[in-house]
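Appendix B, record 7
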Amino acid sequence: MSRLVVVSNRVPVPEKGGAAASAGGLAVALLAALQERGGIWMGWSGKSSGDNEPGPLSVEEQGKITFALTDLTEKDVDEYYFGFANRVLWPICHYRLDLAEYGRKEMAGYFRVNRFFAHRLAPLLKPDDTIWIHDYHLIPLAAELRQMGVKNRIGFFYHIPWPPADVLFAMPVHEEIMRGLAAYDLVGFQTDHDLENFAGCLRREEMGDAIGEGRFMAGDKIFKGGIYGIGIETAAFARFAEKAGHHSLVTKAKESIEDRDLIIGVDRLDYSKGLTQRIDAFERFALANPAHQRKVTYLQVTPKSRSEVPEYEQMQRTVAEQAGRVNGALGTVDWVPIRYINRSVSRPVLAGLYRMAKVGLVTPLRDGMNLVAKEYVAAQDPRDPGVLVLSRFAGAARELRGSLLVNPYDIEGTANAIARALNMPLDERQDRWQRMMDYLLEHDVSRWCDDFLKDLAA
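Structure tokens (predicted):
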């Protein structure tokens, strides 16, 4: 079996006790695959070397896995990460043309850093290594490796949405981005919609087209494209959530909520998550259903992200002000309608809160998949499961057929869905939950990993 080489923007290096710094399902699956096959996980250390050139790779051996991390200069971080990746690619791929800020130096920085990654990775490779590159930060990496003569099989998984042609083509370097994907042997997308959009972009630009059996041709290059909806470690997370109910902080949260129904939303602070529309929908629900007032608590957990990007700073203020306005208008001496937490919550506590919540609100304006939706389902008590209210614009909507699908732009429709979820009879809740749980148990993150690597090797 060939070694596996994983490359991602950030690397969850396990701590001494063996637990990954990021205990999410993706890290668990990739670490398991690396441990089985042996290999390397390379990426950015998250550190800046300032104005100095980065030193040598920081290499750490743990069992059969080599973790190889590189620093970046401050200029690289600004142009590659905060600049092009997060102020051009991210908004474009989430259909926010109004937020994309193009700058030639940022575009140049993005390709320069990918070239830098290639030069750092190439000396570590063996001829039969299988290379698996992840996400929008590193699209050009295969093309850079090919230019250096690397002939290994290289796969790429795109974790976020792929936009339609009219959106993508607003980006000045869209041709280079698409040619970068054509340099891979296999390109994986979250949903059929993403793959269809990608094929449409190839046709519209007359760069290539689908040629059958999951294959595409771009110029003289033939490569494969496929759908690999990422999962979670379903069975393990379900056991984890059951035990988390005894966590002291979860117990305290339950006592503080008293006998009220809990509605929960968990999102990184990002304009793609539909937070302001969600708060509006909760307010509309409360006003339209006075019998539920003082009987529900909406908990929104929203850790800060990318605070160096101005749009995120402004959004943090906007969401906090909006939650405060609703609490001021609806709250009473003994009832705070919205509890807004602007910090991270530990995974055990989060799992326990999911299990307590009668409604999970996952209503992004656009999302590649959204694993919060899957974690919420996996965390439920089978005897008394909650209801998932899910945006039809999340990739998870293509899989979780037992959810209540909503249009997050339709405030009244989302408000009505919240009311329906809270009033749903037990037998319907159980039926909806069972359908989703069966799917998640079959399509967990290990299967996602195995399916992709099997197709890449084929």
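Remarks on this record: Confidence is low (pLDDT under 50) at residues 18-23. The chain has two domains: 4-231+445-457, 234-441.
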